[in-house]
Amino acid sequence: MEKPCNVPGDAVPAQDIALETGASFIQDFQPTKQLCAHLNAFHTYADEPGRYVEANHYCAHLSSDVRQCILYDSPGPNARLIGIEYMITPKLYNTLPAEERRLWHSHVYEVKSGMLIMPGPTTPGLQQAWEAAETKEMKEVVGLYGKVYHLWQTDRGDKLPLGEPKLMTSFTADNQFDFEKAVGDRDSRFGTDWKRKRELRKDIEEPKIHEDADYAWKARRNSM
């Protein structure tokens, strides 16, 4: 196995690989087996809106109202686990105290802009079928609220997860970062097109966003 990139240390020793391979045949990894969706989008720091990180979400349903996601910096086999996100329905969000609601963000812009994607096949025929399923999923996600913390600030080059967890939030408008550059670069790697996604989702109804959500952007406006 080659030496890992972007983290300290040498390649994983052969005996560790052998042990882990054997364990994988015996142990039952039930929590990770529940992962059922891979989504890709960009998060920004709640205390530094505009500074962003691309995140690959691997998500599972805990119930009809709660989802949980593991976040990685890439979809590759040596991806670094950089954070976690929880998603809940408006029904649950509305039961939270105001102070707690301010920690959660909306997904309306992520969905409607074409930023949020479910990477899948790009060959003709298969792509159209996948996009139909993706658009159906976006109709569910558009109304959810998310609470996300990043543990590893890979965007500043950290070789290890340093410092305290960072509350993150979503982008909510076109002018908050260089959308076309960041999302365009992502699309070139996944074979996707945010403009096409935006068009496919134009008829998805936009839910009313609770006034306490996306608080980082409101706090920033109030301080200017």
Fraction of residues in H or I helices: 25-40%
Strand order of the largest sheet: 1-2-3-4-6-7
The chain-level mean pLDDT equals 91
Biggest β-sheet strands, sense, barrel: 6 strands, antiparallel, barrel
Rough outline: globular
Question: Helix/strand/pairing class, anyone?
Answer: alpha+beta
Span from first to last CA? 51 Å
Ranges where pLDDT stays below 50 over 5 or more residues in a row are none
Radius of gyration: 18 Å
Q: How many helices in DSSP terms? A: 9
What fraction strand?
15-25%
- Could you spell the SSE succession in H and E letters? HHEEEEHHEHHEEHHH
Q: Quick one: how many beta strands?
A: 7
Write the layout of secondary structure elements.
Blueprint: H1 14-26, H2 30-33, E1 37-45, E2 48-61, E3 66-72, E4 81-88, H3 90-93, H4 98-101, E5 105-106, H5 108-113, H6 126-141, E6 145-150, E7 166-169, H7 179-190, H8 194-200, H9 215-223
Antiparallel strand pairs: 1-2, 1-7, 2-3, 3-4, 4-6, 5-6, 6-7
What does this structure look like?
The structure is a single chain. With 224 residues, this protein is of the alpha+beta class. The longest helix is centred in the middle third of the chain and has 16 residues, at 126-141. The mean pLDDT is 91. The protein contains nine helices and seven strands, in the order ααββββααβααββααα. It is globular, with a radius of gyration of 18 Å. A six-stranded antiparallel beta barrel has the order 1-2-3-4-6-7. The protein starts with 13 loop residues before the first helix and ends with a helix. It is 33% helix and 22% strand.
